Amino acid sequence: MGFLQTEESKRMEIEELRRMLVACAGVNGRKDDEEFRGLRDRMDDDERRRDEVVCVTSGVSFLGLAIVNRLLLRGYSVRIIVDNQEDIEKLREMESSGEMRTYNNNLSVVTAKLTEVEDVVEAFEGCRGIFHTSAFVDPVGLSGYSKCMAEIEVKATESVMKACARTSSVKNCVLTSSLLACIWREGAKQDLSQVVNQDCWSNEPLCINKKLWYALGKLRSEKAAWQIAEEGGLKLATICPGLITGPDFIQRNPTATIAYLKGAQEMYANGLLATVDVMRLAEAHVCVYEAMNKTGFGRYICFDKVIKREDEAERLESQVGMPKNKLSGNTNIISMPFELSNKKLTTLMSRTLRPCYNQF
Predict the structure, then answer these.
(1) Is residue 303 a contact partner of residue 274, using CB atoms and an 8 Å limit?
(2) Contact of 164 with 123, CB cutoff 8 Å
(3) Please, are residues 327 and 268 in contact by the beta-carbon 8 Å criterion?
């Protein structure tokens, strides 16, 4: 009897060991499957990007070039829109100097007038995504960013958005707006939150009264874009960056820089003078675009830091050639302690997506 009990015990132990091995194999199998699926998804994403054509308007601009380089690095096929032969020559020079990176010949250039819808439709054909960087300068080269330029910016954005809606291949669009489209508000006339975030819109009459044409152009362009996107069923995301900085930014982006800094004293006094490095901004554009395939959309504020101290203000003054104490030396401005928030974009770039669609 004792012998039989020992054999039975051994049999039970062997059976239990077998069950444990099977269970372990199942766990390891699931883990291997998960790792394989993750690798397969990454490979599928790489393959999708190689086959996906995206278009960047004003691709020779300071920001446009950074976005193009980032997209090429990520494996996308990129089409750049230019509107004159001079821009084509500029691209050739940048490619020769190494400033423009090319990968596997997946970069192409087309000529189109952004204010002409038919031109833009033809340029967009076959593209899945559009990056409209809204980079414009005075065509005469005299007045910088004038009221006329604001009107041209709005017209071009309307043309681009209508072309997106009419081009069957286009699914997503990322529009570069500006933080200036969020911060110019009449504090005395409204019960405003002290936090400026993606829900905030600048006051149009205030921008007109202060002759803030760059802010007005960005504000009207973004609102027009949202309206056309809604009417045309187009998926849109807008990025509202602070002052775009980076290597030689004042030489490479003079019109937009000078136009952005109109009213800079008041922005500084209110804690709203923010900057963003061009490479971080380009990364944010690509991140938002890729998130649009899942749940990312809406408005995103993007900045690296807020200029709050006098030494920071002096450094910016030196970089852009402003007189010393131009930003911080005006004691007649009443300070309002606003706080800027780019939490939504920071959360997105950490891959934790929280969708938000904001009506204006």
Answers:
(1) yes
(2) no
(3) yes
Residue 322: phi and psi, rounded to 5, are -85, 150
Instruction: Please tell me the distance from the alpha carbon of residue 341 to that of residue 351, in angstroms, as a whole number.
Output: 18
Residue 276 CB-half CA count within 13 A:
26
pTM for the model stands at 0.82
> Which of 60, 108, 54 is CA-nearest to residue 84?
60
Cα–Cα dist 91/76, whole Å: 18
Active-site residue, 113 included:
no
Helix (H, G, I), strand (E, B) or coil at 56: strand
CA-wise closest residue to 90 among 105, 103, 80: 80
Per-residue pLDDT of 48-90, as tens digits, reads: 666 799 999 988 899 999 999 999 999 999 999 988 888 888 8
pLDDT of 3-30, one tens digit each? 334 555 556 665 665 565 555 555 455 4
Distance CA 273, CA 314 (A): 13
Length of the chain: 360
Q: Where are the alpha helices (DSSP H) in 172-291?
A: 180-183, 204-209, 213-232, 249-252, 254-260, 264-269, 278-291
Q: What share of the chain is helix, strand, coil (3-state, %, to 5)?
A: 50, 15, 35
Choose, from 162, 218, 223, 344, the residue flagged as catalytic.
Answer: 218
Cα separation, 166 vs 233, in Å, equals: 10
